[in-house]
Write a structure and sequence with these properties.
The chain is mainly alpha-helical and 198 residues long. It has one domain (2-197). The chain is 75% helix and 0% strand. It has helices spanning 2-12, 24-42, 48-51, 61-87, 100-122, 124-153, 157-160, 164-182, 186-197.
């Protein structure tokens, strides 16, 4: 789906090359973006105990690190940079009313922005792509909820004494507790929560 977005967006020509400035504000923006990407990648480190359990104990640590790093950095950088490129189509001209990207984003957030990329050119197939992406986000959260128990258990010995399924239940409760009040402004809540976690 991301390759379809890349292809359609590249053909649209709607991206804007934003000029890079200098100074502390630009440095802060670049470092913040890099820290967010790094934070999302390092979030997987606590899962290694479970997801790499099938690696032989004789496997070289550098080899495991390298392949794990490659497996994370390529998709993370690709999706983060694609998102940054697509958001440039919004324009940042507050008075513009004919910008379908800005209108889509203002009406429906990120989903509206992606719809502006996919639906005008692909029609029903673009809508299908959006549905598949929405469902894949839900499916992607399932291992995260399971794995939160591993993350909590590395915080201390006392957390290891509590069974994993209880940590998963607690995390699900927290997840629901954040989701219900955040429903009306989901994107803002999710973005702040994910940046906090990162």
């Amino acid at each position: 789906m991301f390759l379809i977005i890349l292809g359609e967006f590249a053909h649209s020509g709607a991206f804007v090359s934003l000029p890079l400035t200098s100074g502390q504000a630009e440095l802060g923006s670049v470092l913040s973006f890099g820290a967010t990407v790094f934070g999302f990648a390092t979030g997987w480190t606590s899962y290694a105990a479970d997801y790499t359990v099938y690696q032989p104990s004789t496997q070289k640590k550098k080899k495991v690190f390298f392949w794990t790093w490659i497996g994370l950095i390529i998709p993370l950088l690709f999706t983060e940079m694609l998102g940054a490129a697509v958001v440039t189509a919004i324009g940042f001209d507050e008075t513009a009313t004919d910008n379908i990207y800005m209108n889509g984003y203002e009406q429906s957030g990120t989903g509206g922005l992606l719809a502006a990329v996919l639906v005008p050119r692909l029609g029903r197939f673009g809508e299908f792509c959006l549905v598949v992406m929405a469902l894949s986000i839900i499916a992607n959260n399932c291992p995260n909820i399971y794995s939160v128990s591993l993350t909590v258990q590395i915080l201390g010995r006392w957390t290891q004494r509590i069974p994993r399924f209880l940590w998963t239940l607690v995390a699900t409760g927290v997840y629901i507790g954040i989701a219900i009040p955040g429903y009306s402004h989901f994107e803002e809540v999710l973005e702040n929560f994910m940046n906090f976690i990162g």
